[in-house]
Amino acid sequence: MSEVYAARRTRLREYCNAGGSAAALVSRPANVRYLAGAAPPGAVLLLGRTEERDLLVCAGPTADRPTQERPDEALPVQTLPGVGGDPAVAAAGIAAGQGADSLAVEEHHLTVTRHRALGSVAPRLRLAGLGSAVEQLRVVKDEEEISCLRIGAEIADQALGELLESILVGRTERHLALELERRLVDHGADGPAFPTSVATGPNAGRPGHRPTDRRVEEGDFLSVCLGATYRGYRCEIGRTFVIGTAPADWQIELYDLVFAAQRAGRESLVPGAACRDVDRAARQVLDSAGYTEGLTVLTGHGVGLEIDEDPQLSPAAMGKLDACVPVTVEPGVHLPGRGGVRIDDTLVVRPEADGGPELLTITTKELLAL
Amino acid sequence: MSEVYAARRTRLREYCNAGGSAAALVSRPANVRYLAGAAPPGAVLLLGRTEERDLLVCAGPTADRPTQERPDEALPVQTLPGVGGDPAVAAAGIAAGQGADSLAVEEHHLTVTRHRALGSVAPRLRLAGLGSAVEQLRVVKDEEEISCLRIGAEIADQALGELLESILVGRTERHLALELERRLVDHGADGPAFPTSVATGPNAGRPGHRPTDRRVEEGDFLSVCLGATYRGYRCEIGRTFVIGTAPADWQIELYDLVFAAQRAGRESLVPGAACRDVDRAARQVLDSAGYTEGLTVLTGHGVGLEIDEDPQLSPAAMGKLDACVPVTVEPGVHLPGRGGVRIDDTLVVRPEADGGPELLTITTKELLAL
């Protein structure tokens, strides 16, 4: 794996050299992990003018909490001897000491206070902006990364499948969410990819609903959204069910509509498609049925080391999809007081020649009455 | 409760006026919650020159995730109409529109990018630093806040007590941690106050250990650290046990030593005590027994809306303890390859006339063999 990380750092180095900065300081944890193989708490990556100068700077004993992941072995590590020091400040000092005259930093991650401390420790170092260069490198995944997402999706499918076999009526949203999270870990996840959402009755279909003490009742919609983290990679699946022997007509209608919107979104996932067109494909199905109010801003987003990454699938999104970009497609409708439906898959954009979009979350999307 | 939040805002307003800033922008979520009663995702508090101008600015539909807490009803709320907007930027615009010439902001929380956006939207507004003024207001708790911590501690005690009655040998750290978190929620916690730590055998006693798949074995030390969040307030308890019929001599010795250190720390919690003296009281017991290596930087810290607040109990800490400040006392020793002991309580500093420090986490600290 070491070559993978070195190659990623080389790409970033080329970007920085083109932008006129000899050195870069990467502080956002997911970015550090992407480039260094692991992100111990507080650690920053100093990217030097040449590979030999790359350095992972780790915090001292305070933050010395063991992580499961090990950094790239080819990357030198420096741990701060003192206590409470800021690895970013130390790294700026090291860069200045090596004669760098400018350092590109992640201004969207560093606070004003930390940025000022960097300037103080190395007053001759010009602090430039790295922008979201590393986030952009992270958008297209390699097969190793996709394989982690695939395993995570399998784990989430398993956890969800087991829950559906158990008795649901009378149990609270909170308990069902905890049970799902336990099952994720049972099946080998590092942990949940984000707080598991379980929503019943009038709560069903609310995006990002936090589980409450409401109990599942006959006739409810039940919507569930969960994901596993596997080797740092986070996937997402969402499904909506009906509790009881037979769904009501309005439930079937609403479900079919959201299902059609979600399918339209999935089917438009081809390399080269504009992100806003994927969003529009899903959104216009809901729009044309009169559900214009209360739609979420996004109908999907990238996933990877974070659960919400670029690209964004929204009306205002710029940019096009590339092959090997994993995204969610997750339209939904929520009717205040009545509940609603959300259907959410994680898929990888693939060329049609390779069979089109690869569905990672394979739990059925038929409307199940449980 | 509304008067409580208004009174907190008044205190901050007095501080800002004394510092020469007519308006302040509070963005750190725990600080927003402290002053406004709730912190919807992304929301910021704009503190005006007078109470009538205070305003909670909330993000638009993207972040519209229901929270259980409601903001202070006396506080006007403005929700951004658009999508993806930054409430902090909107608040700066509002302050400028109201004729404020300077705005104190939380430079330790705002990123460089956000700070720059504030400057762009209101170029005539001078951005000053609010420092950690709100964090300092939060240090001394009122009885309502302490009562939330007390209930949280009871919940943690219950969860831990139930775990001790179950069979432990053969179960993994990961499972025990999940079980504890489920029990916290069962007993009414909003959720865990921080990721529950369960450490067995050679892992026992490691601060902040993340649970692994190691199983509990006969003869192990087992150390557990958990806490409940109750109405936003976070407490912490840590205990170490021995698995099997009788502890080994080295285990008893090490346990007694850490217990003595923890007791020394607890007994030095009096109003007016220097934070570093409390740290020293605990630390010197371990030092004088030869355990100078591998001690943690802190032997305790404040708790409240965050699990790690001021004051810090460490050798370099400045400042003194006041009455009604809740802190942890949590010394420990970890012997590489063998394991170790941590004992951790949450207590409230109280004057001797009121009976001295109030212990919130009452699970026994005898060495139990389970």
Characterize the structure shown.
Chains A, B: It comes from Streptomyces variegatus. Chains A, B: Residues 8-140 form the Creatinase N-terminal domain. Chains A, B: This is X-Pro dipeptidase. 2 copies of one chain form a homodimer. Chain A has helices spanning 2-19, 29-36, 87-97, 112-121, 133-138, 143-164, 173-186, 249-267, 275-288, and strands at 23-26, 44-47, 55-58, 77-79, 102-105, 126-129, 191-192, 197-200, 221-226, 228-230, 233-234, 237-242, 300-302, 309-313, 326-329, 332-335, 339-342, 345-348, 358-359. In chain A, 33% of the residues lie in helices and 19% in strands. In chain A, the strands form 6 sheets. In chain A, strands 4-3-2-1-5-6 form a 6-stranded mixed beta sheet, with helices on both faces. Chain A has a 3-stranded antiparallel beta sheet with strand order 7-10-11. The first copy, chain A, contains 9 helices and 19 strands. In chain A, helix 6 crosses helix 7 (173-186) and helix 8 (249-267) runs antiparallel to helix 9 (275-288). Chain A has 2 domains: 2-137, 3-Layer(aba) Sandwich (Creatine Amidinohydrolase, Chain A, domain 1), CATH 3.40.350; 143-359, Creatine Amidinohydrolase (Alpha-Beta Complex), CATH 3.90.230. Mean pLDDT of chain A is 93; it is low at 62-66. The longest helix of chain A is centred in the middle third of the chain and has 22 residues, at 143-164. The first copy, chain A, has 370 residues and is α+β, with helices and mostly antiparallel strands. Chain A is elongated and about 70 Å long.
